[in-house]
Amino acid sequence: MALNLILMGLPGAGKGTQAEFIVDKYHMPHISTGDMFRAAISNGTPLGLKAKSFTDKGNLVPDEVTNGIVKQRLAQKDTEPGFLLDGYPRTLDQADALADMTEQLHKPLSAVINIDVDPKILTKRLTARFICKNCGATYNKLYHMPKVDGTCDVCGHHEFYQRDDDKPEAVQNRLKVNVKMNTPLISYYKDRDLLFNVNGDQDIDKVWQDVDKILSSL
Known about the structure:
By secondary structure, this protein is an alpha/beta fold. The protein has 8 helices and 8 strands; from the N terminus they run E-H-E-H-H-H-E-H-E-H-E-E-E-H-E-H. It has a single domain (3-118, 171-217), classed as Rossmann fold (3-Layer(aba) Sandwich). A 5-stranded parallel beta sheet has the order 2-3-1-4-8, sandwiched between helices. Strands 6-5-7 form a 3-stranded antiparallel beta sheet. It is globular. It catalyses: AMP + ATP = 2 ADP.
């Protein structure tokens, strides 16, 4: 049976890593909104061109266009063994639209996996990131320091910086926006018995074991 999944989690929760593990084991396409938009725009599809007219002006793409692009993507043949949606839906209206399209395509959702980490922990994780000024190599004060203190492993330079959006105030704001967006969706999928919360504040391999256990049981 096909596994049709949504992956949720706040920035820094480790969604990207878990998505790689899921795709690798269960052989399904990882469908992120950004990738879908880029593909639709570069292929010059009517919906892609419509989306481009909004993104070019720095505006949000309206739901009807986003939903149309998602539906076209889910209708493609490579989603028959299942799919992993990431970054969609973002609103309750989009969740309703997704429910309609999965029903029409006979590809009902199997589960929504939410990688759950306390925002305070995520603030620590995200603000710990720093970058080599010369080559852009990324480090983290919590779990990935340069081998030699103050020296980049990749290019040997000694100057580092922190991106503006990794500074505490920006990180807290980003998390607040995402919590506000995710909370109604978590309730929505919980009410439909599709939600599985996974503790993301564990070792990466332990998080994967928990995710894999859920998927194997489906």
